Protein backbone atom coordinates (compact mmCIF):
# COMPACT_ATOMS: atom_id res chain seq x y z
CA UNK A 1 0.00 0.00 0.00
CA UNK A 2 1.44 3.36 -0.96
CA UNK A 3 1.82 6.12 1.60
CA UNK A 4 -0.87 8.82 1.65
CA UNK A 5 -0.03 11.99 -0.25
CA UNK A 6 0.91 14.65 2.29
CA UNK A 7 1.98 17.20 -0.32
CA UNK A 8 -0.97 19.52 0.42
CA UNK A 9 -0.93 19.15 4.20
CA UNK A 10 0.18 22.19 6.16
CA UNK A 11 0.28 22.44 9.95
CA UNK A 12 -0.04 25.75 11.72
CA UNK A 13 2.46 26.39 14.50
CA UNK A 14 -0.47 27.12 16.82
CA UNK A 15 -1.25 23.38 16.70
CA UNK A 16 2.14 22.59 18.27
CA UNK A 17 2.18 25.49 20.65
CA UNK A 18 4.98 24.18 22.87
CA UNK A 19 7.48 24.13 20.00
CA UNK A 20 9.68 27.10 19.09
CA UNK A 21 9.74 27.96 15.41
CA UNK A 22 13.15 26.28 15.13
CA UNK A 23 11.72 23.09 16.66
CA UNK A 24 8.50 23.24 14.64
CA UNK A 25 10.19 23.53 11.24
CA UNK A 26 12.42 20.58 12.12
CA UNK A 27 9.52 18.37 13.32
CA UNK A 28 7.34 19.26 10.32
CA UNK A 29 10.14 18.71 7.81
CA UNK A 30 11.14 15.41 9.46
CA UNK A 31 7.50 14.33 9.09
CA UNK A 32 7.75 14.93 5.36
CA UNK A 33 5.61 18.03 5.18
CA UNK A 34 6.17 20.69 2.55
CA UNK A 35 4.13 23.52 4.11
CA UNK A 36 3.87 25.35 7.40
CA UNK A 37 1.29 27.83 8.66
CA UNK A 38 2.96 30.40 10.88
CA UNK A 39 1.48 32.21 13.85
CA UNK A 40 2.99 35.61 14.51
CA UNK A 41 3.99 34.84 18.10
CA UNK A 42 6.58 32.39 16.79
CA UNK A 43 7.89 34.98 14.33
CA UNK A 44 8.19 37.58 17.09
CA UNK A 45 10.12 35.15 19.31
CA UNK A 46 12.54 34.14 16.57
CA UNK A 47 12.91 37.57 15.00
CA UNK A 48 11.70 38.06 11.44
CA UNK A 49 15.04 37.58 9.63
CA UNK A 50 15.79 34.46 11.64
CA UNK A 51 12.25 33.13 11.08
CA UNK A 52 12.60 33.58 7.33
CA UNK A 53 15.95 31.74 7.41
CA UNK A 54 14.62 28.88 9.58
CA UNK A 55 11.66 28.23 7.31
CA UNK A 56 13.75 28.43 4.15
CA UNK A 57 16.51 26.16 5.46
CA UNK A 58 13.92 23.55 6.44
CA UNK A 59 12.66 23.57 2.87
CA UNK A 60 9.13 24.54 3.91
CA UNK A 61 6.73 26.89 2.18
CA UNK A 62 4.58 29.17 4.33
CA UNK A 63 0.91 28.52 3.55
CA UNK A 64 -0.35 31.49 5.59
CA UNK A 65 0.59 33.95 8.29
CA UNK A 66 -1.84 34.20 11.22
CA UNK A 67 -2.95 36.76 11.92
CA UNK A 68 -3.77 40.38 11.17
CA UNK A 69 -7.03 42.10 11.95
CA UNK A 70 -8.65 43.53 15.09
CA UNK A 71 -9.93 46.47 13.11
CA UNK A 72 -13.00 47.48 15.13
CA UNK A 73 -11.61 50.13 17.49
CA UNK A 74 -13.87 53.18 17.61
CA UNK A 75 -11.19 55.62 18.80
CA UNK A 76 -8.47 57.26 16.70
CA UNK A 77 -5.62 55.84 18.79
CA UNK A 78 -6.96 52.31 18.51
CA UNK A 79 -7.42 52.71 14.77
CA UNK A 80 -3.84 53.98 14.34
CA UNK A 81 -2.52 51.04 16.36
CA UNK A 82 -4.49 48.62 14.20
CA UNK A 83 -3.12 50.11 10.99
CA UNK A 84 0.46 49.99 12.30
CA UNK A 85 0.12 46.41 13.50
CA UNK A 86 -1.47 45.22 10.27
CA UNK A 87 1.18 46.98 8.19
CA UNK A 88 3.79 45.08 10.21
CA UNK A 89 1.89 41.82 9.62
CA UNK A 90 1.76 42.49 5.87
CA UNK A 91 5.54 43.04 5.82
CA UNK A 92 6.10 39.83 7.78
CA UNK A 93 3.92 37.83 5.37
CA UNK A 94 5.86 39.20 2.40
CA UNK A 95 9.21 38.44 4.05
CA UNK A 96 8.08 34.88 4.84
CA UNK A 97 7.13 34.39 1.21
CA UNK A 98 3.40 33.84 1.69
CA UNK A 99 0.68 35.77 -0.09
CA UNK A 100 -1.96 34.88 2.50
CA UNK A 101 -2.39 36.99 5.65
CA UNK A 102 -5.31 35.64 7.69
CA UNK A 103 -7.46 38.43 9.16
CA UNK A 104 -9.54 38.06 12.34
CA UNK A 105 -11.47 41.29 12.18
CA UNK A 106 -12.17 41.99 15.85
CA UNK A 107 -15.23 42.23 18.08
CA UNK A 108 -17.32 44.81 19.92
CA UNK A 109 -15.68 47.68 21.84
CA UNK A 110 -17.65 46.56 24.92
CA UNK A 111 -15.77 43.22 24.84
CA UNK A 112 -12.34 44.63 24.07
CA UNK A 113 -10.98 44.18 27.61
CA UNK A 114 -11.75 40.44 27.45
CA UNK A 115 -9.01 39.96 24.88
CA UNK A 116 -6.41 42.31 26.33
CA UNK A 117 -7.64 45.52 24.72
CA UNK A 118 -8.62 48.73 26.46
CA UNK A 119 -11.60 48.72 28.82
CA UNK A 120 -14.60 50.38 27.16
CA UNK A 121 -17.62 51.41 29.24
CA UNK A 122 -20.39 49.11 27.93
CA UNK A 123 -22.96 51.87 28.37
CA UNK A 124 -21.11 54.20 25.95
CA UNK A 125 -23.26 54.62 22.81
CA UNK A 126 -22.14 52.17 20.15
CA UNK A 127 -20.13 49.93 22.51
CA UNK A 128 -22.39 46.99 21.60
CA UNK A 129 -23.34 48.13 18.08
CA UNK A 130 -22.33 45.21 15.88
CA UNK A 131 -23.36 46.91 12.63
CA UNK A 132 -21.19 49.95 13.40
CA UNK A 133 -18.25 47.67 14.25
CA UNK A 134 -18.68 45.99 10.85
CA UNK A 135 -18.62 49.36 9.10
CA UNK A 136 -15.31 50.17 10.81
CA UNK A 137 -13.89 46.86 9.54
CA UNK A 138 -14.79 47.92 6.00
CA UNK A 139 -13.18 51.34 6.53
CA UNK A 140 -9.90 49.91 7.89
CA UNK A 141 -9.82 47.29 5.14
CA UNK A 142 -10.01 50.04 2.51
CA UNK A 143 -7.01 51.73 4.15
CA UNK A 144 -4.99 48.48 4.28
CA UNK A 145 -5.63 47.35 0.71
CA UNK A 146 -3.02 49.69 -0.87
CA UNK A 147 -0.42 48.53 1.68
CA UNK A 148 -1.18 44.89 0.92
CA UNK A 149 -0.94 45.57 -2.81
CA UNK A 150 2.43 47.25 -2.36
CA UNK A 151 3.78 44.07 -0.73
CA UNK A 152 1.94 41.55 -2.93
CA UNK A 153 0.02 40.19 0.04
CA UNK A 154 -3.64 39.14 0.17
CA UNK A 155 -5.80 40.10 3.17
CA UNK A 156 -7.70 36.89 3.86
CA UNK A 157 -10.93 37.53 5.76
CA UNK A 158 -11.79 34.79 8.24
CA UNK A 159 -15.40 34.42 9.35
CA UNK A 160 -15.32 33.17 12.93
CA UNK A 161 -17.93 31.04 14.66
CA UNK A 162 -20.70 33.28 16.04
CA UNK A 163 -19.74 32.26 19.58
CA UNK A 164 -16.82 34.69 19.09
CA UNK A 165 -18.87 37.53 17.57
CA UNK A 166 -18.70 39.68 20.71
CA UNK A 167 -15.02 39.41 21.54
CA UNK A 168 -13.12 38.40 18.40
CA UNK A 169 -14.90 38.78 15.08
CA UNK A 170 -18.07 40.57 14.04
CA UNK A 171 -17.58 38.65 10.77
CA UNK A 172 -19.53 35.40 11.22
CA UNK A 173 -20.35 33.91 7.83
CA UNK A 174 -18.53 33.26 4.58
CA UNK A 175 -21.22 35.17 2.68
CA UNK A 176 -20.64 38.20 4.86
CA UNK A 177 -16.87 37.92 4.24
CA UNK A 178 -17.45 37.82 0.49
CA UNK A 179 -19.71 40.88 0.69
CA UNK A 180 -16.99 42.71 2.62
CA UNK A 181 -14.37 41.68 0.05
CA UNK A 182 -16.48 42.66 -2.94
CA UNK A 183 -15.20 46.25 -3.47
CA UNK A 184 -11.59 45.05 -3.68
CA UNK A 185 -9.57 43.05 -6.23
CA UNK A 186 -9.63 39.31 -5.62
CA UNK A 187 -5.84 39.10 -5.50
CA UNK A 188 -5.76 41.54 -2.59
CA UNK A 189 -8.76 40.53 -0.47
CA UNK A 190 -9.66 36.86 -0.12
CA UNK A 191 -11.49 34.57 2.28
CA UNK A 192 -10.65 31.43 4.22
CA UNK A 193 -12.91 28.47 4.94
CA UNK A 194 -12.15 27.13 8.42
CA UNK A 195 -14.34 24.12 9.10
CA UNK A 196 -14.65 24.81 12.83
CA UNK A 197 -16.08 28.24 12.22
CA UNK A 198 -18.46 27.69 9.31
CA UNK A 199 -19.64 24.04 9.26
CA UNK A 200 -23.09 24.95 10.69
CA UNK A 201 -23.89 27.64 8.10
CA UNK A 202 -26.99 26.77 6.05
CA UNK A 203 -25.59 28.88 3.18
CA UNK A 204 -22.15 27.22 3.26
CA UNK A 205 -22.37 25.27 0.01
CA UNK A 206 -23.49 28.34 -1.94
CA UNK A 207 -20.93 30.60 -0.25
CA UNK A 208 -18.02 28.25 -0.97
CA UNK A 209 -19.10 28.08 -4.62
CA UNK A 210 -19.29 31.88 -4.68
CA UNK A 211 -15.80 32.15 -3.14
CA UNK A 212 -14.56 29.95 -5.95
CA UNK A 213 -16.31 31.75 -8.76
CA UNK A 214 -15.15 35.12 -7.42
CA UNK A 215 -11.57 33.75 -7.15
CA UNK A 216 -11.28 34.61 -3.46
CA UNK A 217 -10.77 31.21 -1.81
CA UNK A 218 -7.29 31.76 -0.37
CA UNK A 219 -7.07 29.00 2.22
CA UNK A 220 -8.83 25.89 3.49
CA UNK A 221 -8.28 25.22 7.19
CA UNK A 222 -9.45 22.03 8.86
CA UNK A 223 -10.06 20.95 12.42
CA UNK A 224 -13.08 19.56 14.22
CA UNK A 225 -15.81 21.17 16.33
CA UNK A 226 -15.73 19.40 19.69
CA UNK A 227 -18.42 19.21 22.35
CA UNK A 228 -18.77 20.07 25.12
CA UNK A 229 -17.40 23.52 24.41
CA UNK A 230 -14.12 23.92 26.32
CA UNK A 231 -13.91 26.09 29.45
CA UNK A 232 -11.89 28.49 27.30
CA UNK A 233 -14.17 28.47 24.25
CA UNK A 234 -11.23 29.18 21.96
CA UNK A 235 -9.85 25.73 22.77
CA UNK A 236 -12.84 23.70 21.54
CA UNK A 237 -11.06 22.76 18.32
CA UNK A 238 -10.14 19.11 17.92
CA UNK A 239 -8.40 16.61 15.69
CA UNK A 240 -10.44 15.81 12.59
CA UNK A 241 -12.79 12.99 13.51
CA UNK A 242 -13.14 13.87 17.20
CA UNK A 243 -16.11 16.22 16.76
CA UNK A 244 -19.07 16.93 14.50
CA UNK A 245 -17.74 18.35 11.23
CA UNK A 246 -18.69 16.50 8.04
CA UNK A 247 -15.30 16.76 6.28
CA UNK A 248 -16.45 14.69 3.31
CA UNK A 249 -19.16 17.17 2.38
CA UNK A 250 -17.24 20.38 3.01
CA UNK A 251 -14.11 18.95 1.37
CA UNK A 252 -16.13 18.12 -1.74
CA UNK A 253 -17.53 21.66 -1.93
CA UNK A 254 -14.02 23.12 -1.62
CA UNK A 255 -12.64 20.73 -4.24
CA UNK A 256 -15.45 21.69 -6.62
CA UNK A 257 -14.17 25.29 -6.64
CA UNK A 258 -10.89 24.04 -8.11
CA UNK A 259 -8.91 24.96 -4.99
CA UNK A 260 -5.60 23.07 -5.13
CA UNK A 261 -3.57 24.93 -2.49
CA UNK A 262 -2.36 23.77 0.91
CA UNK A 263 -4.86 22.53 3.50
CA UNK A 264 -3.88 23.82 6.89
CA UNK A 265 -4.52 22.13 10.22
CA UNK A 266 -4.86 24.68 12.99
CA UNK A 267 -5.98 23.35 16.37
CA UNK A 268 -6.14 25.14 19.68
CA UNK A 269 -6.70 22.46 22.32
CA UNK A 270 -5.06 22.18 25.72
CA UNK A 271 -4.70 18.38 25.67
CA UNK A 272 -3.05 18.58 22.25
CA UNK A 273 -0.79 21.41 23.40
CA UNK A 274 0.25 19.25 26.37
CA UNK A 275 1.36 16.40 24.04
CA UNK A 276 4.84 16.13 22.46
CA UNK A 277 4.98 18.01 19.15
CA UNK A 278 6.12 15.01 17.11
CA UNK A 279 3.19 12.94 18.44
CA UNK A 280 0.78 15.72 17.49
CA UNK A 281 2.16 15.86 13.95
CA UNK A 282 1.82 12.08 13.69
CA UNK A 283 -1.83 12.19 14.75
CA UNK A 284 -2.57 15.12 12.43
CA UNK A 285 -1.13 13.16 9.51
CA UNK A 286 -3.18 10.08 10.28
CA UNK A 287 -6.44 11.99 10.79
CA UNK A 288 -5.78 14.03 7.68
CA UNK A 289 -5.23 10.89 5.60
CA UNK A 290 -8.43 9.36 7.01
CA UNK A 291 -10.87 12.28 7.08
CA UNK A 292 -9.63 15.03 4.75
CA UNK A 293 -7.44 13.74 1.92
CA UNK A 294 -10.01 11.34 0.38
CA UNK A 295 -12.38 14.24 -0.30
CA UNK A 296 -9.98 16.82 -1.76
CA UNK B 1 -42.61 59.24 38.44
CA UNK B 2 -45.04 56.64 37.22
CA UNK B 3 -44.23 52.95 37.44
CA UNK B 4 -42.92 51.28 34.29
CA UNK B 5 -45.50 49.43 32.22
CA UNK B 6 -45.06 45.71 32.85
CA UNK B 7 -48.14 44.68 30.89
CA UNK B 8 -46.10 43.04 28.10
CA UNK B 9 -43.48 41.40 30.34
CA UNK B 10 -43.62 37.64 30.58
CA UNK B 11 -41.19 35.47 32.53
CA UNK B 12 -40.51 31.88 31.57
CA UNK B 13 -40.54 29.38 34.40
CA UNK B 14 -37.07 28.24 33.30
CA UNK B 15 -35.77 31.59 34.62
CA UNK B 16 -36.90 30.68 38.14
CA UNK B 17 -35.96 27.05 37.96
CA UNK B 18 -36.15 26.37 41.70
CA UNK B 19 -39.85 27.31 41.86
CA UNK B 20 -42.65 24.82 41.36
CA UNK B 21 -45.39 25.98 39.00
CA UNK B 22 -47.58 26.75 42.01
CA UNK B 23 -44.83 28.93 43.48
CA UNK B 24 -43.98 30.56 40.16
CA UNK B 25 -47.52 31.68 39.34
CA UNK B 26 -47.83 33.19 42.83
CA UNK B 27 -44.49 35.04 42.63
CA UNK B 28 -45.18 36.34 39.11
CA UNK B 29 -48.72 37.42 39.94
CA UNK B 30 -47.57 39.10 43.16
CA UNK B 31 -45.01 41.01 41.07
CA UNK B 32 -47.85 42.37 38.95
CA UNK B 33 -47.17 40.37 35.84
CA UNK B 34 -49.93 39.35 33.44
CA UNK B 35 -48.06 36.68 31.44
CA UNK B 36 -46.07 33.54 32.09
CA UNK B 37 -43.96 31.42 29.77
CA UNK B 38 -44.22 27.79 30.76
CA UNK B 39 -41.56 25.12 30.43
CA UNK B 40 -42.94 21.61 30.06
CA UNK B 41 -41.04 20.18 33.04
CA UNK B 42 -43.22 22.32 35.34
CA UNK B 43 -46.38 21.10 33.59
CA UNK B 44 -45.30 17.48 33.96
CA UNK B 45 -44.61 17.93 37.66
CA UNK B 46 -47.94 19.62 38.37
CA UNK B 47 -50.00 17.49 36.01
CA UNK B 48 -51.69 19.18 33.06
CA UNK B 49 -55.15 19.75 34.58
CA UNK B 50 -53.63 21.14 37.74
CA UNK B 51 -51.22 23.32 35.75
CA UNK B 52 -54.10 24.77 33.76
CA UNK B 53 -55.99 25.52 36.98
CA UNK B 54 -52.97 27.09 38.72
CA UNK B 55 -52.26 29.45 35.84
CA UNK B 56 -55.92 30.41 35.45
CA UNK B 57 -56.47 31.02 39.16
CA UNK B 58 -53.38 33.26 39.28
CA UNK B 59 -54.92 35.35 36.50
CA UNK B 60 -51.97 34.81 34.19
CA UNK B 61 -51.96 34.28 30.45
CA UNK B 62 -49.50 31.78 28.99
CA UNK B 63 -47.29 33.54 26.44
CA UNK B 64 -45.71 30.32 25.17
CA UNK B 65 -45.09 26.70 25.99
CA UNK B 66 -41.47 25.54 25.79
CA UNK B 67 -40.82 23.28 24.10
CA UNK B 68 -41.53 20.87 21.29
CA UNK B 69 -39.09 19.77 18.64
CA UNK B 70 -36.15 17.36 18.47
CA UNK B 71 -37.26 16.20 15.05
CA UNK B 72 -33.97 15.03 13.56
CA UNK B 73 -33.93 11.31 14.41
CA UNK B 74 -32.96 9.24 11.39
CA UNK B 75 -34.57 5.99 12.58
CA UNK B 76 -38.27 5.11 12.47
CA UNK B 77 -38.54 4.59 16.24
CA UNK B 78 -37.00 7.96 16.97
CA UNK B 79 -39.32 9.62 14.46
CA UNK B 80 -42.38 7.98 16.01
CA UNK B 81 -41.30 9.10 19.47
CA UNK B 82 -40.83 12.65 18.21
CA UNK B 83 -44.30 12.73 16.67
CA UNK B 84 -45.89 11.37 19.85
CA UNK B 85 -44.04 13.81 22.08
CA UNK B 86 -44.84 16.79 19.89
CA UNK B 87 -48.49 15.79 19.69
CA UNK B 88 -48.54 15.76 23.49
CA UNK B 89 -46.89 19.19 23.57
CA UNK B 90 -49.47 20.56 21.12
CA UNK B 91 -52.29 19.30 23.37
CA UNK B 92 -50.64 20.84 26.43
CA UNK B 93 -50.27 24.21 24.69
CA UNK B 94 -53.94 24.16 23.72
CA UNK B 95 -55.01 23.20 27.24
CA UNK B 96 -52.90 26.00 28.72
CA UNK B 97 -54.56 28.48 26.37
CA UNK B 98 -51.51 29.52 24.41
CA UNK B 99 -51.23 29.42 20.63
CA UNK B 100 -47.43 29.44 20.71
CA UNK B 101 -45.48 26.18 21.02
CA UNK B 102 -41.73 26.92 20.83
CA UNK B 103 -39.87 24.34 18.74
CA UNK B 104 -36.18 23.49 19.22
CA UNK B 105 -35.64 21.34 16.17
CA UNK B 106 -32.82 19.05 17.31
CA UNK B 107 -29.22 18.37 16.31
CA UNK B 108 -27.10 15.77 14.56
CA UNK B 109 -27.60 12.05 15.23
CA UNK B 110 -23.89 11.85 16.13
CA UNK B 111 -24.52 14.24 19.05
CA UNK B 112 -27.77 12.68 20.23
CA UNK B 113 -26.23 10.95 23.26
CA UNK B 114 -24.97 14.31 24.56
CA UNK B 115 -28.53 15.41 25.28
CA UNK B 116 -29.85 12.14 26.62
CA UNK B 117 -30.82 10.56 23.32
CA UNK B 118 -29.69 7.22 21.93
CA UNK B 119 -25.99 6.72 21.18
CA UNK B 120 -25.39 6.83 17.42
CA UNK B 121 -22.09 5.61 15.97
CA UNK B 122 -20.53 8.81 14.59
CA UNK B 123 -19.01 6.88 11.67
CA UNK B 124 -22.46 5.78 10.44
CA UNK B 125 -23.18 7.47 7.09
CA UNK B 126 -25.19 10.64 7.68
CA UNK B 127 -24.53 10.84 11.44
CA UNK B 128 -22.90 14.25 10.93
CA UNK B 129 -24.85 15.32 7.83
CA UNK B 130 -26.39 18.63 8.81
CA UNK B 131 -28.24 19.12 5.51
CA UNK B 132 -29.93 15.72 5.85
CA UNK B 133 -30.90 16.52 9.45
CA UNK B 134 -32.54 19.74 8.20
CA UNK B 135 -34.52 17.82 5.60
CA UNK B 136 -35.86 15.53 8.32
CA UNK B 137 -36.98 18.59 10.29
CA UNK B 138 -38.97 19.73 7.26
CA UNK B 139 -40.50 16.26 6.89
CA UNK B 140 -41.56 16.02 10.55
CA UNK B 141 -42.90 19.56 10.47
CA UNK B 142 -45.16 18.68 7.55
CA UNK B 143 -46.52 15.76 9.58
CA UNK B 144 -47.15 17.93 12.67
CA UNK B 145 -48.85 20.83 10.90
CA UNK B 146 -52.28 19.11 10.64
CA UNK B 147 -52.12 18.19 14.34
CA UNK B 148 -51.28 21.76 15.29
CA UNK B 149 -54.12 23.05 13.10
CA UNK B 150 -56.56 20.68 14.77
CA UNK B 151 -55.69 22.18 18.16
CA UNK B 152 -55.32 25.80 17.02
CA UNK B 153 -51.68 25.85 18.02
CA UNK B 154 -48.77 27.47 16.15
CA UNK B 155 -45.46 25.63 15.81
CA UNK B 156 -42.93 28.37 16.54
CA UNK B 157 -39.51 27.60 15.04
CA UNK B 158 -36.62 28.79 17.18
CA UNK B 159 -33.25 29.35 15.53
CA UNK B 160 -30.62 28.54 18.13
CA UNK B 161 -27.14 30.01 18.38
CA UNK B 162 -24.78 28.07 16.09
CA UNK B 163 -22.82 26.91 19.14
CA UNK B 164 -25.75 24.48 19.61
CA UNK B 165 -25.97 23.35 15.98
CA UNK B 166 -24.45 19.93 16.67
CA UNK B 167 -26.42 18.90 19.74
CA UNK B 168 -29.65 20.92 19.85
CA UNK B 169 -30.71 22.71 16.69
CA UNK B 170 -29.59 22.47 13.08
CA UNK B 171 -31.70 25.60 12.66
CA UNK B 172 -29.30 28.50 13.23
CA UNK B 173 -30.68 31.66 11.64
CA UNK B 174 -34.00 33.44 11.46
CA UNK B 175 -33.83 33.45 7.67
CA UNK B 176 -33.44 29.69 7.67
CA UNK B 177 -36.44 29.38 10.03
CA UNK B 178 -38.56 31.51 7.68
CA UNK B 179 -37.52 29.38 4.71
CA UNK B 180 -38.53 26.28 6.64
CA UNK B 181 -41.89 27.84 7.56
CA UNK B 182 -42.63 29.02 4.03
CA UNK B 183 -44.69 26.04 2.78
CA UNK B 184 -47.11 26.32 5.70
CA UNK B 185 -49.80 28.83 6.74
CA UNK B 186 -48.50 31.65 8.93
CA UNK B 187 -51.04 30.92 11.65
CA UNK B 188 -49.69 27.37 12.01
CA UNK B 189 -45.92 27.79 11.64
CA UNK B 190 -44.24 30.86 13.10
CA UNK B 191 -40.80 31.96 14.31
CA UNK B 192 -39.39 33.38 17.52
CA UNK B 193 -36.65 35.98 17.89
CA UNK B 194 -34.54 35.13 20.94
CA UNK B 195 -31.86 37.79 21.36
CA UNK B 196 -29.29 35.37 22.79
CA UNK B 197 -29.46 33.17 19.75
CA UNK B 198 -29.62 35.66 16.87
CA UNK B 199 -28.00 38.97 17.92
CA UNK B 200 -24.83 38.26 15.91
CA UNK B 201 -26.61 37.52 12.59
CA UNK B 202 -25.61 39.99 9.85
CA UNK B 203 -29.01 39.40 8.20
CA UNK B 204 -31.00 39.95 11.39
CA UNK B 205 -32.60 43.28 10.50
CA UNK B 206 -33.81 41.98 7.15
CA UNK B 207 -34.98 38.68 8.62
CA UNK B 208 -36.99 40.33 11.40
CA UNK B 209 -38.65 42.59 8.82
CA UNK B 210 -39.41 39.51 6.71
CA UNK B 211 -40.88 37.71 9.74
CA UNK B 212 -43.15 40.70 10.22
CA UNK B 213 -44.23 41.03 6.61
CA UNK B 214 -44.91 37.29 6.39
CA UNK B 215 -46.91 37.48 9.64
CA UNK B 216 -44.84 34.81 11.37
CA UNK B 217 -43.32 36.67 14.32
CA UNK B 218 -44.91 34.71 17.16
CA UNK B 219 -42.71 35.61 20.11
CA UNK B 220 -39.92 37.94 21.18
CA UNK B 221 -37.65 36.48 23.86
CA UNK B 222 -34.99 38.53 25.60
CA UNK B 223 -31.92 37.76 27.64
CA UNK B 224 -28.28 38.68 27.28
CA UNK B 225 -25.29 36.88 25.73
CA UNK B 226 -22.68 36.61 28.48
CA UNK B 227 -18.96 36.02 28.16
CA UNK B 228 -17.03 33.97 28.98
CA UNK B 229 -19.25 31.15 27.75
CA UNK B 230 -20.36 29.12 30.78
CA UNK B 231 -18.86 25.69 31.49
CA UNK B 232 -22.28 24.32 30.49
CA UNK B 233 -22.72 26.40 27.33
CA UNK B 234 -26.49 26.33 27.73
CA UNK B 235 -26.15 28.47 30.85
CA UNK B 236 -24.41 31.46 29.22
CA UNK B 237 -27.63 33.47 29.18
CA UNK B 238 -27.73 36.51 31.45
CA UNK B 239 -29.89 39.33 32.72
CA UNK B 240 -30.38 42.01 30.09
CA UNK B 241 -27.47 44.46 30.44
CA UNK B 242 -24.94 41.91 31.72
CA UNK B 243 -23.69 40.83 28.28
CA UNK B 244 -23.28 42.07 24.73
CA UNK B 245 -26.74 42.26 23.16
CA UNK B 246 -27.81 45.64 21.76
CA UNK B 247 -31.43 45.56 22.97
CA UNK B 248 -32.17 49.06 21.67
CA UNK B 249 -31.45 48.10 18.07
CA UNK B 250 -33.09 44.67 18.07
CA UNK B 251 -36.08 45.99 20.03
CA UNK B 252 -36.57 48.72 17.44
CA UNK B 253 -36.50 46.19 14.60
CA UNK B 254 -39.08 44.03 16.38
CA UNK B 255 -41.28 47.04 17.13
CA UNK B 256 -41.15 48.08 13.47
CA UNK B 257 -42.86 44.83 12.50
CA UNK B 258 -45.87 45.86 14.56
CA UNK B 259 -45.38 43.07 17.09
CA UNK B 260 -47.37 43.97 20.20
CA UNK B 261 -47.42 40.64 22.03
CA UNK B 262 -45.74 39.56 25.24
CA UNK B 263 -41.97 39.85 25.59
CA UNK B 264 -40.64 36.82 27.39
CA UNK B 265 -37.56 36.67 29.59
CA UNK B 266 -36.02 33.21 29.54
CA UNK B 267 -32.67 32.85 31.28
CA UNK B 268 -30.71 29.70 32.01
CA UNK B 269 -27.94 30.71 34.41
CA UNK B 270 -26.71 28.84 37.46
CA UNK B 271 -26.15 31.94 39.62
CA UNK B 272 -29.69 33.15 38.82
CA UNK B 273 -31.12 29.70 39.50
CA UNK B 274 -29.37 29.75 42.88
CA UNK B 275 -31.07 33.05 43.86
CA UNK B 276 -34.52 33.29 45.49
CA UNK B 277 -37.27 33.40 42.87
CA UNK B 278 -38.77 36.66 44.07
CA UNK B 279 -35.37 38.37 43.85
CA UNK B 280 -34.93 37.08 40.31
CA UNK B 281 -38.32 38.46 39.29
CA UNK B 282 -37.41 41.81 40.84
CA UNK B 283 -34.15 42.00 38.90
CA UNK B 284 -35.85 40.92 35.67
CA UNK B 285 -38.40 43.72 36.09
CA UNK B 286 -35.75 46.35 36.69
CA UNK B 287 -33.56 45.23 33.78
CA UNK B 288 -36.59 44.96 31.54
CA UNK B 289 -37.65 48.52 32.39
CA UNK B 290 -34.12 49.78 31.77
CA UNK B 291 -33.00 47.88 28.66
CA UNK B 292 -36.06 46.50 26.86
CA UNK B 293 -39.23 48.52 27.49
CA UNK B 294 -37.92 51.88 26.17
CA UNK B 295 -37.35 50.35 22.72
CA UNK B 296 -40.59 48.40 22.24
UniProtKB/TrEMBL annotation, chains A, B:
Domain of life assignment: Bacteria
Keyword Transferase: no
Annotated InterPro entries: IolE/XylAMocC-like (IPR050312), Xyl_isomerase-like_sf (IPR036237), Xyl_isomerase-like_TIM-brl (IPR013022)
Keywords: Carbohydrate metabolism, Isomerase
Sample GO molecular function, one term: isomerase activity
Annotated Xylose isomerase-like TIM barrel domain residues: 27-271
Name used for this protein in its record: Sugar phosphate isomerase/epimerase family protein
Organism: Arthrobacter flavus
Amino acid sequence: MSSPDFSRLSINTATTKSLTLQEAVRVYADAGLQHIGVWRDRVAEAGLDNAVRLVREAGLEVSSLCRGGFLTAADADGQQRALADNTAAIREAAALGTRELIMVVGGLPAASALIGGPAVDPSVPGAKDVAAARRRVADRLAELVPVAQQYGVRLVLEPLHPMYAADRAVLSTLGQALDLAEPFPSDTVGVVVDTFHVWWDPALEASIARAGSEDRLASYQVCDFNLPIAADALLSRGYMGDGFVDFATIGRWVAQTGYVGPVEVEIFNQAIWDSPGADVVGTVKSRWAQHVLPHL
